[in-house]
Design a protein that fits this description.
Layout (H helix, E strand, L loop, with lengths): L6 E12 L8 H4 L2 E18 L3 E6 L4 E6 L12 H10 L4 E7 L9 H17 L5 H15 L7 H8 L2 E7 L2 E6 L4 H10 E5 L6 H13 L3 H23 L2 H18 L6 H12 L4 E4 L7 E5 L5 H9 L3 E2 L10 E2 L1
Parallel strand pairs: 3-5
Antiparallel strand pairs: 1-2, 1-12, 2-5, 2-6, 3-4, 6-7, 8-10, 8-11, 9-10
Helix pairs in contact: 2-3, 2-4, 3-4, 3-5, 4-5, 8-9, 10-11
Length: 334
């Protein structure tokens, strides 16, 4: 018999304006990274109902479920549930029903796995009466993904999900410096109205791309090293442009960051992404880039004024436009 109470949590995904990739080790540890991102009200959700001696794991958005009896976590049973398995094992819980879902497609490039990790930690903490601050939640979720589930990546997704809002995040030697960006309300509104988020319809496994890129960095590949260093510089300029409300510069920096991203790996820009980018340029956008690691997933663009033409252009080449608004609040539990 299960418990009578369900503990729920949700955490937002993000748009990374500049500097994504520079939060990943070894670059972040050896040279220091900077990422500018903002949380958006598309969320990952986790519900946990403690009780019993078995686990029932359900991914409602993917139509998958599995049952684990008596703590027997076999690879076959838990395929596709790496984060859920890691979170439950770390919690020390004897049994539970755990349900998860995401408001964005799998492999969207919007940081959904990081947001899910934060939601999982928060829901399981609530069930156990554990309290952590947002940074502690972000670090715990990073451990789940990068260490327990062995999926390489950085920390920007977890911090955006835990904190909400706009931030400049600094990464140095394993430490994270959090600097909120205070944007004028009119600028936040203009960005929300004019940014067009486009899912290409092709998901990707970012961990594989990340592993290739960071192996190239470790081997001192000159092109990769220069691209990562260039993105750190662009992120600092992006923070300044957003704070000043200079949307024309924001657009140019998005496209310059995208240029650096493409220098990291030959597979970053897919054919679908190239078609989408060409259509959006013809529609007159100020700039745009891949969300997250690239190699599929989503792209987002800043329209010059009315975004309707850009939206029509994206849909005409088969992209799915994802409506959004800024997430003022990070992870929530109830």
């Amino acid at each position: 018999m299960r418990g009578e109470r369900v503990f729920r949590a949700s955490a937002p995904v993000r748009l990374d304006f500049a500097g994504g990739w520079t939060d990943v080790a070894p670059f972040a540890v050896e040279e220091g990274g900077v990422v500018v991102n903002a949380a958006i009200e598309l969320r990952a959700h986790a519900d946990v109902e403690p009780g019993g001696s078995d686990f029932l794991l359900q991914a409602d958005d993917l139509g998958r479920q599995t049952q684990v009896r008596g703590g027997s976590w076999t690879a076959e049973q838990t395929a596709g549930f790496a984060l859920q398995k890691a979170a439950l094992q770390r919690s020390g819980m004897a049994g539970a029903v755990l349900r998860t879902r995401s408001d964005v497609p799998a492999g969207s490039g919007l940081g959904s796995s990081g947001a899910l990790g934060v939601a999982l930690v928060a829901a399981l903490d609530a069930a156990r009466g554990v309290r952590r601050n947002p940074s502690e939640l972000a670090e715990a979720a990073f451990q789940l993904e990068a260490i327990d589930a062995a999926l390489p990546g950085g920390k920007q997704d977890q911090y955006a999900a835990a904190l909400g809002g706009f931030h400049r995040l600094g990464f140095q030697g394993g430490r994270v410096e959090v600097h909120p960006l205070a944007l004028d309300a009119a600028i936040r509104t203009a960005l929300q109205e004019r940014i067009v988020v486009c899912y290409t319809g092709t998901s990707r496994v970012s961990s594989k791309t990340i592993a290739r890129v960071m192996s190239a960095y470790a081997a001192n590949d000159a092109t990769v090293v220069a691209a990562l260093r260039g993105m750190v510089e662009l992120a600092e300029r992006m923070a300044e442009a957003l704070s000043a409300g200079d949307l024309a510069t924001v657009g140019r920096l998005l496209s310059r960051n995208w240029g650096h991203q493409q220098q990291l790996d030959h597979g970053i820009r897919t054919e679908d992404m190239a078609r989408l980018e060409a259509a959006m340029q013809e529609a007159g956008v100020l700039g745009g880039k891949a969300a997250g690691a690239g190699a599929g997933g989503s792209m987002f663009f800043l329209a010059a004024d009315n975004p309707r033409e850009a939206t029509r252009a994206a849909e005409a080449v088969g992209a799915r436009v994802l409506p959004f608004r800024w997430a003022e609040e990070g992870v929530k539990t109830w």
